[in-house]
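quick one, 650 residues, struct below
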Amino acid sequence: MTSTRTLTALALAALLAGCAVAPTHPALQGEALPPLIPVREFVANTEGTSLYRVSPDGAWLAWKGVSGLKPAVWVKRLANGEARPIAVRAQSIVWSGDSRFLFLTVDPSGDEDTKVLAVDVARGGSEAVDLTPFKGARSRLVRRIDGSAEVLVASNARDKKVFDLYRIDPATGTRSLIAQNPGNVAGWVADRDGRLRARSVQEGDGGYLQLPDGDGWRTTLRWQRENWWIADLVPGTNTAWAVSSRGRDKEALVRMDLETGAEQVIHAEPEVDVEQVLVSRRSHAPLAAYSMPGHPRARYFDAALAARLEPLAGGAPAAVHVSSMSDDEQILTVSVGTDRGWKYYLLTGTGKAPELLGESNTSGLAASLASTRPIAYEARDGLRIHGYLTLPPGVQPRALPMVLLVHGGPWARDLWTYQGTNRSVQQFLANRGYAVLQVNYRGSSGYGRAFMEKAVGEFAGRMHDDLIDGVRWAVAEGVADPARVAIYGASYGGYSALVGATMTPETFACAVDVVGMSDLARLIENAPAYWALGLPWWKRYVGDPADPAQRKVMDAKSPINHVAKVRAPLLVMHGVNDPRVKFDQSERMVAALRAAGKPVEFVSFRGDGHGNQKWSNNLAMYRHAEDFLAGCLGGRSSGFDYYQLGAWAF
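---
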């Protein structure tokens, strides 16, 4: 009789016997592909770091990294280099205004019930303390207060649909309610001293701004289907530096009068929106504005700052962003991003050489990674569509197997810089031998209000046509093999993958759906409570399931109702704790596919939700994806990764 120990040993031996799978597509055979990068380097690289933040007094540095094999936030005293880890998987890192506390935002289980933790760095060995111990609530940082340990936090603990504003003392944990949400406030605006200065009120798909007036509020300006947000308030005035598309198509950096709504345009780009702004903590004036028409673009308003930052780009395209500054603005942490990764620097004074602090997970592998170039083409209705094309190095760019990688949102966009989930996936796929096409289809952010508005009512319509037209462009350019194209995406991108498999099956050899919706009506009906103020926007673009006529249209655009048309295999992956696109969106889709006799592989991720935070789940996602795509497109696969042996423990 065989013992359990023997069976376990045999099973492990069988797993370890797994080896890399060579490419079978003719365009890849015999080509000088770069070294095959193990999956663990993309998802569990212990050398990868990010989120570097210097304290306001310039004495401390914090960053996100790894301790052992577990995520951690590191804190270092710059004077002597002493550092220690805090065992927390943080989404954001913010210093208190007095440099004593570190505030960390965490999502422990992927259900987006985020918490705000505090660490007293002045007390060596102190652990993170939960400042928002609310059950089933989302809490987020609104603003640190200059010179103070206290912080402003918004939370929906009282009413899951809206967020109240609190002032919290991390030393005692005392919470003071600053403002209770009457049910329609979408955002609170406070100054650097922690004083509540304004609130934005949602009204349908428009809104209005209100300023404090005695014990009440008075309305000053209104907007309708226009985007704007405040970068910072100008002290001693009723004006703010803002990014706004009020009265124009593209979002521009403006100085806005909060009483009259009048705007003075400081900087605008003709092709795209201004997306980020850096404001001085000393002069309270803009230092830089950032946009991305194709490659990153920066407009500096301070010559001295430009002289410190521009050399970091090395004369090549790069995004050079200040991620934090000391109060005297002499010590900076700077992120330098390209299409292959990010490097992080510490600048400590004029004339001093920048210190390299760390790199993102794959920056150290840049020599083996692929380059990405901006592309553009005309959609079938004449609309100009922009995107990015990544080609596997070492291969002739002719008739390659291709993955159409679709971004989520859909009110978001793909960027040239290595940023977000798609960037990691994009380089991973290119390393496996695939051309990767990313399309900023109509409705994507960053290209102006008119471009976004063209997506109204176009789910599974012209938004999807833009994707198909992108594939046709790549085939016409000679890059893609029309018989070996996959569609892959997460969230809205996952929905697009399902639409591709069910409604345009002639285009795709296979599809990979990650946390995608299969039933639009149920998506809206089961939306999380905190979506309440944003639902008018969703209903305008997608439809209102309470209206029978609109529901009929939504059903026609839902992939779950078209499974009979599927011709190619699907890989469906979903986090069990997803609060946005509920897990049953994938469960029901997979059940319908199997009932119809269609080939589908289903992978679920425990302890994660709308996107994976746990490296062990990402390891499984990448491994399933590379084996699946190797089977239908003919690229290569790394086979078994030895990190899979211990992934269960994380």
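Residues 1-17 have pLDDT under 50 and may be disordered.
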